[in-house]
Amino acid sequence: MGGARVYVPQALKPDHPLVLILGQETAGKLSYYCGGDTFDVPSKVLYRHVRDALIRDAYHSMPPGEGNRANILAREYGISRRHVMNIVRG
């Protein structure tokens, strides 16, 4: 399994993957001390889990008449439409 290079922003939004994985307090400390740095993380498993949950939530919260939901999310997350549908279907 490949790893990921993770950029730590100086300001984190509540829905940022680091906040969702580490919690607001820990992610805030990481951002305070390491904001602007990049780290190599050995596995993408946690990020993939959070990303997939965000995609599922976004897909189900979008009104069906708002274009093709899968295409919109595919562009937003840089993955294929088919992959979005596989994630949504579980």
Overview of this protein structure:
The structure is a single chain. With 90 residues, the chain is mainly α. The protein contains five helices and two strands, in the order E-H-H-E-H-H-H. The protein has helices spanning 17-22, 24-34, 45-61, 69-77, 81-89, and strands at residues 4-7, 38-41. Helix 4 (69-77) crosses helix 5 (81-89). The longest helix has 17 residues, at 45-61. The mean pLDDT is 88.
Count of extended strands:
2
Largest sheet: 2 strands, antiparallel
User: Which spans have pLDDT < 50 for at least 5 consecutive residues?
Assistant: none
Strand order of the largest sheet: 1-2
| Percentage of residues in DSSP E strands | 5-15%
Q: Report, as a whole number of angstroms, the end-to-end distance.
A: 21 Å
Shape: elongated
Please give the count of helices.
5
The secondary-structure class comes to: mainly alpha
Report mean pLDDT, rounded to a whole number.
88
Instruction: Calculate Rg over CA atoms.
Output: 15 Å
What is the oligomer described by this structure?
A: single chain
Percent in helix: 55-70%
The SSE order reads EHHEHHH
